[in-house]
Amino acid sequence: MISEEIKQNLTQSSWIRKMFEEGQRLKAIHGADNVYDFSLGNPVIDPPKEYFDALKTYANNPISGGHSYIPNQGLVEARAKVASHLEGRYGDIGVTDQTVIMTSGAAGALNVALRSILNEDDEVIIFTPFFVEYKFYVNNAKGKAVYCPLAEDFTIDLEELASTITSRTKAVILNNPHNPTGQLLPQEDLESFNALLREKEAETGATIHVLYDDPYSQLIYDYDAPNPFAAIERLFYVSSFSKDLGLAGERLGYLAIDGQMDGAGDYMAAFVFANRTLGFGNASVTVQRMISQLPTLTQEQAGYKERRNAMVDVLTDAGFEFVEPKGGFFIFPKSPLVDDTAFCKLAAEKFNILLVPGAGFGREGHFRLSYSVSPKQIERSREAFKALFEECKI
Ligand code: PLP
Description:
Layout: H1 4-11, H2 15-30, E1 36-37, H3 49-60, H4 76-90, E2 100-103, H5 105-117, E3 123-128, H6 133-140, E4 144-149, H7 158-164, E5 169-175, H8 187-204, E6 209-213, H9 228-231, E7 235-240, E8 253-256, H10 264-277, H11 285-293, H12 302-318, E9 330-331, H13 340-351, E10 353-354, E11 356-357, E12 367-370, H14 375-380, H15 382-393
Parallel strand pairs: 1-10, 3-4, 3-5, 5-6, 6-7
Antiparallel strand pairs: 2-8, 7-8, 9-12, 11-12
Helix pairs in contact: 3-11, 4-11, 5-6, 5-10, 12-15, 13-15
Pyridoxal-5'-phosphate (PLP) is lined by residues 41, 105-107, 131, 175, 179, 213, 215, 240, 242, 248, 253.
């Protein structure tokens, strides 16, 4: 009774899911402390104290009627908070409460954006390696995913991108900082990316939107955050509070555009319609109310930077080769075995280390590791990583 498409996707069940199940099995046998689970991208740093203070205050003074349906675009105070946060971060970018829509996470925002603009078989370019869900989101909106490999150092290969664009290209999804590699494209790369898109538009007649997926926007270490609004035209800015504020389970994100963009009013009307009719609407009204009351949406992310440094040290010590991550909470090292799936199997079965093969992200020969784990786990895994690397030399 299940649709052919879903049936096929279920049989190719996600690697992250498989690793999660393997982790549960190994933890039951060896105890949680003896399994080094680096497979999941779940934020480990809790929301700020002010969030819980706001929740307590609200619980003691609830608003009558405050839990009924709200406008499909989201609470106006939440949208205004997001607009002023973006203005503080990126300057005068034309984003107002009228051009922000609150969504069910960044995931919801991406689905809303794609559903709003795609006609059947319109092409959406996804860089590889990718966040696995993108291809499903494109399918949800009846589009066609087209893959464009990132360069060896995970920057955009402009020649590859140029050869991927056709007259049917409707959007490119760009995630920066990037899951799974932890790389961050600087301002000049965003500018040359934009210049190429405009050139190709003139050549092919396509109208190309950039879905700038930025849920790791505040998890950037030692580098300046680039300003996508200043560099990219026809920009749909997508972000969420999942990672920046540690609220992943609350499912609150947003989609924002510059009100001066051509067709801004039509895009907003389409987003609101899609948000409603996709069925999930915008996220919890209580969480929208809480984030509206926070003194700031800007957070220090020192905890992730410390973990990044510790993980880099452990992997370097063991001998792994990788491009050092600049943001997010993932590293994407080269697999010491040609077969990355065999490597991850070996890591799990012999060393209790849970990793995800690069094949699961559309780039073989690598593996992904999330350092959103306890500092203790990172340190305890040191010897296991060394032994694993040594074993691969044999
Ligand atoms: N985009 C990327 C690149 C992600 O890594 C994730 C979550 O892991 C999402 C989007 C979805 O985030 P959210 O929890 O805000 O829906």
